[in-house]
Write a structure and sequence with these properties.
Radius of gyration: 27 Å
Number of helices: 17
Distance between the termini: 61 Å
Strand order of the largest sheet: 10-9-8-7-6-3-12-11
Bound molecules: iron/sulfur cluster
Strand content: 15-25%
Helix content: 25-40%
Length: about 475
């Protein structure tokens, strides 16, 4: 395993030819280490026979500890696993937890199609991006191959999302595979009773497969090893998910043990893990709000530790919103805060009399301020100052938000406080109050200190605007 650009550099052609788009091989080596580049991006390494051995060695050394498994095809392919660390601040977590929502083959056709569309069209706007759901899990509640095949056909006709085929009956899985074989579905699941037949299906159709053993890690590892020895590479582990608080400790411990062993080099169990929060609906909880609650609790716990793919049921907003938000947060790369472009933005329809504000380009800060302004009908100009994606308070303390930086951002945006507005005034965030004097000197403008919290901007504007 290699962790530094210098180590990766040894395997590169070292000609600095620039064909990869980087000025030097060392710069490219850095991209390999942070996984923003792949060995296939270096044409000489790929094309020239003399580098073949080094390429093979480098690929092996760069491979993540936990195998990366792809479900589906095309733009919406769901990649899971691929992690190298137990704690995200040691590097980052790759491949956000993928959320598959269930349908069953006993649903009425219209209800099935409607739910598939709902899963496909789900969209939640959050700090500048849309959070989406990842796939459809088709459960063979009928245990009838023909019925299952018909449901799988309906699903893949109505979505491009990846699918998971769910049954312990190999005949049912085969019927589904015949319909969806071009979609690289995930097979759920092989267990102690059906592993031989399901393993053969995975090999024959070349698809990823889940091995399942409830609360029995030895059996789970043994199944995974048997499959790996048979030549199946894309394996997902299902150690079982207890349906509610009872048993949660065991499930949690199993997830920890599996991931710790995988990261520490036990290749026999170094595969992505499946969590099944939808078991909350199968636990005898009759109240749907309680079932949704427990499902969301389980999804949250195993997003943090270490569910790579999940089967879920509830699409109520109070269930899906925390689930997709948490996954987005945990899998945000801590090395590069989410940032918006540093420029002047229009909120609403501002004119020459409208207020001018600035904030930082940390996406969470920017969109919070923008939303507080827009939802209160405040037409204004909002400058996002480049603070390397750091929020206001930390950026002021750390020197990323200074009067010079604000001046520079105004200049780069092309916005002239003396010409583009009539009032030559700018409003600073309350948390950057101490920049006021320096800003007035640097900008030659009047500087008003705004509220500490952008939620108070409407009240502030009522009292202080026009200046
Ligand atoms: Fe080096 Fe390969 Fe990039 Fe050329 S293409 S600079 S050889 S890493």
């Amino acid at each position: 395993k290699i962790n530094s650009p210098l180590e990766a550099y040894k395997y590169l052609p070292q000609t600095n030819c620039g064909e990869c788009g980087e000025p030097t091989c060392m710069a490219f080596a850095s991209k390999l280490i942070d996984r923003s580049g792949k060995t296939t991006d270096c044409p000489p390494l790929i094309k020239e026979k003399k580098f073949a051995k080094k390429l093979a060695e480098l690929d092996k050394l760069l491979a993540p500890e936990i195998r990366e498994v792809a479900i589906g095809v095309g733009d919406r392919v769901a990649k899971i696993g691929g992690d190298d660390v137990l704690y995200r601040h040691k590097l980052t977590f790759f491949n956000k937890t993928k959320m598959f929502f269930d349908v069953t083959d006993t649903m009425e056709e219209s209800a099935l199609v409607e739910r598939v569309k709902k899963i496909t069209d789900y969209k939640k706007f959050y700090v500048g991006r849309n959070l989406l759901l990842d796939g459809v899990a088709i459960r063979a509640a009928s245990n009838d191959p023909a019925k299952f095949a018909s449901a799988v056909k309906k699903v893949i006709e109505n979505t491009e999302l990846p699918v998971i085929l769910c049954s312990f009956n190999p005949a049912v899985l085969k019927a589904g595979l015949e319909v969806a074989k071009d979609k690289n579905p995930l097979l759920y699941a092989a267990n102690k009773d059906n592993w031989k037949e399901v393993g053969e299906l995975a090999l024959e159709y070349k698809v990823p497969v889940v091995v399942s053993a409830f609360n029995d890690l030895d059996a789970l590892k043994s199944l995974a090893k048997t499959f790996a020895d048979a030549g199946i590479k894309d394996i997902v582990l299902d150690p079982g998910t207890y349906p509610s608080g009872k048993g949660l400790k065991d499930t949690f411990t199993n997830f920890l043990k599996i991931r710790r062993a995988g990261i520490m080099g036990d290749t026999e169990i170094a595969y992505p893990v499946m969590a099944m929060p939808l078991t909350a609906w199968m636990s005898g909880i009759s109240d749907p709000v309680s079932a949704s609650y427990w499902e969301t609790v389980l999804a949250s716990v195993f997003t943090i530790r270490y569910g790579d793919v999940m089967l879920l049921h509830s699409m109520d907003p109070y269930a899906t919103m925390p689930e997709v938000h948490l996954a987005e947060t945990i899998y945000t790369d801590p090395r590069s805060p989410v940032a918006v472009d540093s420029k002047m933005y229009k909120v609403g329809t501002p004119d020459e009399n409208s207020p001018v504000l600035f904030t930082t380009n940390f996406a969470l800060t920017y969109y919070t301020v923008e939303s507080d302004l827009a939802s209160n009908g405040i037409n204004c100009w909002l400058l996002a100052v480049n603070t390397d994606g750091i929020g206001v308070e930390a950026a002021v303390a750390g020197g990323q938000l200074t009067a010079d930086k604000v001046k520079d951002a105004f200049e780069k945006s092309g916005f002239d406080l003396k010409k583009d507005v009539t009032h030559n005034t700018v409003i600073t965030p309350g948390l950057a109050a101490r920049l006021q004097g320096d800003l007035e000197d640097k900008l030659g403008s009047k500087v008003l200190v705004g509220p500490m919290d952008s939620g108070r901007l409407p009240g502030f504007m009522e009292k202080n605007w026009p200046p």
